[in-house]
Write a structure and sequence with these properties.
single chain, about 475 residues, mainly alpha, 3 domains, Rossmann fold
Length: about 475
């Protein structure tokens, strides 16, 4: 029989997941408002379905994010309990052991996450423990934005228009400055026990050059970007991977180190104060809503990670050439903008959004590799990999999802590079073997005269690969296969 604390000392249990922050944290605020000591718990979920177990890049981020959160929590008088295993067993058992009267957590929306939350809630209620979940990750719950007939939006524009018209996004909650822990603490793991960091080899060694996981890092990045020159031309520069036109907040948002509600209101305030152009601020907020759109899709369409929303694509004939997939993963396709994107992903754990579209289109429509292979690779290598965003975006790229780019819209990787990396600076950074090429040839080195290649130190087929497919031929084949399923 576990020892139960007297009810007068009964703490509140705060089960943390993707909400590692003290600003605008509804679950944390609700736990604190109970008026009892608060015990914080993070469970490394070892019962997650195999395809959704934490990817390697996310594990690196989680280690550093938890390290920083724990330090900030202890400054507030709090304590973090780390456990690994099945949260459906761990959360109810720990709540009962410490005599908790209530458990609070932030909701998540993928099918397997919802199932876990339901099981935890039922187990807690069976023990007579109050269980409350909160919206701490979205502007609106997936069920709060519906069509006139009560259905789910499958097209983004009317969804965005409804959110613009509502004007009822809640204000951010006050920062939690004190979170006193119980005087008696149960056993806990250490982060070192979890072995989240890669060691042999340490393929994440360069990540820290680009990223500062944790709430402080998120706020610092947000403040710096808001003041930057490129940010104030957001609409025109967000598609330029050679510029700092995007906020690069996606990993921080994924781990809940910064609140989407706070970002929304911060941008509104910046526009109102004439510190940010109104049109660019509107476009930025529309990108936050695209994230919402992805979450409501995956909530209402469970199984999207395996099944295309457009049923006709179930019969699409893929090549799934393993050598082509490997070349794409390694950034050795012979198309510089594609290779730069894939190498940026491997070196930094992140890829510019425009380039995500280019490399995705190339995998699916030039190489005829199933979009689910791209989804799996991104899940393991992206710091911001998210069940909703990752799935909805790959279905969009493949032309089989909601409001998707039509399959016949096939990006030409060469002209995309020339348009969005006009001077070749992005390619030069991540494909250094091409760095000495003039910008005229940087996106199509196979068209450069032999003398230019020699002067640049480029030997096609040796120092840099020739294109693994001919885009014009690949495009015709992709369109023929699309016609076959129409």
């Amino acid at each position: 029989m576990p020892y139960l604390l007297p009810m007068t000392d009964a703490p509140t249990l705060l089960w943390l997941r993707q909400d590692l922050r003290f600003d605008d944290n509804p679950a944390m605020r609700a736990a604190l408002d109970e008026g009892q000591p608060v015990l914080c718990l993070y469970v490394l979920d070892e019962e997650t379905p195999g395809e959704w177990a934490l990817g390697g890049a996310q594990r690196w981020w989680l280690h550093h994010s938890l390290t920083n959160f724990q330090a900030d929590l202890e400054k507030r008088g709090g304590a973090l309990i780390l456990r690994r295993g099945d949260p459906r067993q761990i959360v109810p058992a720990l709540a009962q052991k410490i005599g908790a009267s209530s458990v609070h957590w932030t909701r998540r929306y993928a099918a397997w996450q919802v199932d876990t939350d339901k099981a935890v809630k039922e187990a807690l209620k069976a023990r007579g423990i109050n269980a409350e979940s909160h919206n701490g990750g979205l502007l609106y719950e997936p069920w709060e934005i519906a069509t006139k007939t009560g259905g789910t939006y499958r097209v983004y524009t009317p969804y965005w228009k409804q959110i613009q018209a509502r004007e009822d996004i809640r204000p951010p909650l006050p920062r939690v400055n004190k979170l006193p822990a119980p005087s008696s603490l149960p056993d806990r793991d250490t982060l070192e026990d979890w072995n989240l960091l890669p060691t042999r080899p340490n393929w994440a060694k360069s990540f820290s050059e680009d990223w500062a996981p944790g709430e402080k890092g998120a706020k610092a990045r947000w403040r710096a970007w808001l003041k930057s020159k490129d940010a104030k031309a957001y609409d025109s520069l967000r598609n330029r991977p050679d510029r700092e036109g995007t906020s690069r907040l996606s990993p921080h948002l994924h781990f809940g180190e910064i609140s989407v509600v706070s970002l929304w209101h911060d941008m509104q305030a910046a526009v109102a104060a004439h510190d940010f152009p109104a049109d660019d601020g509107k476009v930025f907020r529309s990108e936050l809503v695209w994230r919402e759109f992805s979450h409501q899709l995956t909530f209402h369409q469970p199984g999207m990670e395996e099944t295309p929303l457009m049923e006709k694509f179930s019969g699409f004939r893929w090549d799934n050439d393993k050598a082509h997939l490997r070349a794409w993963q390694q950034g050795l396709t012979g198309y510089p903008i594609v290779d730069a994107g894939m190498r940026q992903l491997w070196q930094t754990g992140w890829m510019h959004n425009r380039v995500r579209m280019i490399v995705g289109s190339f995998l699916v429509k030039d190489l005829l590799v199933d979009w689910r292979e791209g989804l799996k690779w991104f899940w393991d290598t992206l710091l911001d990999a998210d069940p909703a965003n990752n799935t909805a975006s790959w279905q969009w790229i493949a032309g089989c999802g909601a409001d998707a780019a039509p399959f016949f819209r096939i990006f030409n990787p060469t002209t995309q590079g020339q348009k969005f990396d006009p001077d070749g600076d992005y390619v030069r950074r991540f494909v250094p073997e091409l760095s000495a090429l003039p910008k005229k040839y940087i996106h199509a080195p196979e068209t450069a005269p032999p003398l230019i290649l020699k002067e640049a130190g480029v030997k096609l087929g040796e120092t840099y690969p020739l294109p693994i497919v001919d885009h014009a031929i690949a495009r015709k084949e992709a369109l023929a296969r699309y016609e076959a399923i129409k």
